[in-house]
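Troubleshooting log. The previous run stalled partway through. Resubmitting the same two chains, unchanged.
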Amino acid sequence: MANIGLRGIEKYFGANYVIRQLNLEIADGEFVVLLGPSGCGKTTTLRAIAGLEEIDSGLITIDERPVQDLPPGERDIAFVFQLFALYPHLTAFENIAFPLRATGETRAEIERKVKDVAASLRIEPLLAKRPSALSGGDLQRVAIGRALVRRPKALLMDEPIGALDAKLREDMRAELKRLHIENGTTSVYVTHDQVEAMSLADRVAVMNDGVLQQVGTPSEVYLHPVNLFVAQFVGSPVMNIVPAEIRPDGAETAVAIGGGPAFAFPGELAARLGAALPAGHELVVGVRPEAVRVAREAAPGLRPVEAHFIEPLGAYDIVDLKVGERLIKARTPSGFVRRPGEAVWARLDVPQVHFFDATSGDVLKLEPAHG
Amino acid sequence: MLARLDTRSRAAAQGWSDLAIRNAFIIPTIAFLIIFNVFPLIYSLGYSFTDFRASVSEPARFVGLRNYRELLSDPNVWRNFTVTAKYVIVSVTGQVVVGFGLAMLLNRTFPMKGFVTTLLLLPMMMSMAVVGLFWKLLYDPSWGPINYALGLGSFDWLSNPNHALYAVAITDIWMWAPFVMLLSLAGLSAVPQHLYEAAAIDRASGWYSFTRITLPLVAPILLIAIIFRTMEAFKTFDLAYIMSGQPTTETISIRLYKMAFQEWQTGRSSALAYIVLIVVVAITNIYVKYLNKVKER
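Second attempt completed without errors. Output:
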């Protein structure tokens, strides 16, 4: 096991950059997920760590040893491919044994190690089968077995469960988590699925357009997104982003959305926002559906809104509320709003509301200490 | 309705039924096969049990298995078979090694790849007779360019009985390695790149991934190439006949030709043709069995 360091990684494809100035330190035993939309450079970054892709500049270290000029085989890492990349002409046993045979381990050692890893993956009954006779989930278990069998310093996974159906993905997610807890192998995992990222990661690294946007624990990334991209990429349903008008209103600050009713915020907010937002920049408000509180009866602090559309999702409903000219998604207990068109009351949960500079996309830091 | 009319074939629109269309394709083929393949096959089987000679107007006399018995105990025929076997082994092995090697070299992207591939395919598009005559010139001991290029002085390729078979085989390799190359190239490009990436990460050496990944995955298509080339090499006639008249290059087909059309032993040559047929079918069957085993994986 080992730590992995990425320092100043750059990769160009012709004149276009694929990765720009990427710095990331992955601690020994940590599970880091690279999260981002397709084409954001996350897979290229992973392949660069593996040595399957060359970088144009920067330093990659594994166990503090620079490896960027070493071939993949000398980096002592394992890689799980999205499409499994199992050897089609070999049985599951031989597939798992491949890395051991390639380095000339003894027959008895191979037998023992393959059996061990197969037991931990619960695939012993499948060892005699060829990949063509295995289901998607089992294929990936075998692929993971092949990766783990020689106890690599780090395990790199490129959307390993992306090709499986939804139910199987959920099972495999839990299994990957269990394996990581049991083995504690340093893991880097690439996905575009934020649910996978949130559920598996010790830390999530969100990438967009070749640039690392934010690195943090799943809850940090979810609760304190540093910019509009992270705010909207992480979380489902997506965070509401709406332009807002801010004005001091006596002891409070009025935040008016879509020209509709103004929500009440603490009085010092107006001054802090004024200080944080550069002159001439637009302001947008970000609020997750669960931070929009809905009530059926009027109460102090609540504003009248109209339910426009209801998506029942079983455990809860997502209700589109018409706030002035805008629609805002709110999460309510299922059946709470009975029908579209119903008049209800709503407020925003102040600590969970984010203010962004619409021009730069960055979140506005409102703590007095940060100015 | 209009759309349905459009999708119907013209033949169908003219009132041909599916069955009629099928017959229009099948009947000429079947007729051709019967007239030119099945009929001569059965007819010559009959001749192989007689002492018939096409050059004399005597009726054929039934002699039972005498032709077969005599052929199989004739040391000259056995020598012909040995020559042929040697030729098949040298020539097919050479074609596979050279052809597969070329395919490995071509299986990457480089400028003018299409042009280079086409150039390499040219030999197999030429006429056997022309190739034979040209290589005879190339092999010429006193002024042939091969000896000149290799600095072999007046090395005797074709008239030395010990070299002639190999010289013919080399020409055959030159001509047909591109065929093996073409099939191998198709096989190689079908091996997914990520398997090599997986092998590189698994610390497999180049040789290890070649023997454990490339070869097994290309094996089925390579075997098909080998089946074709073995069958062709086994019945080799033109190259050996044109390039050399040595007894050491007298393949079974040349023997057959001489027996049938120079000595006019029609009955006996029919029997020999049947022996050759059985041998070729047997060899092909072994290959096909092996091919099926390889394909199962």
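Takeaways: The domain at 66-296 of chain B is CATH 1.10.3720.10 (MetI-like fold). Residues 75-106 of chain B form the longest helix (32 residues).
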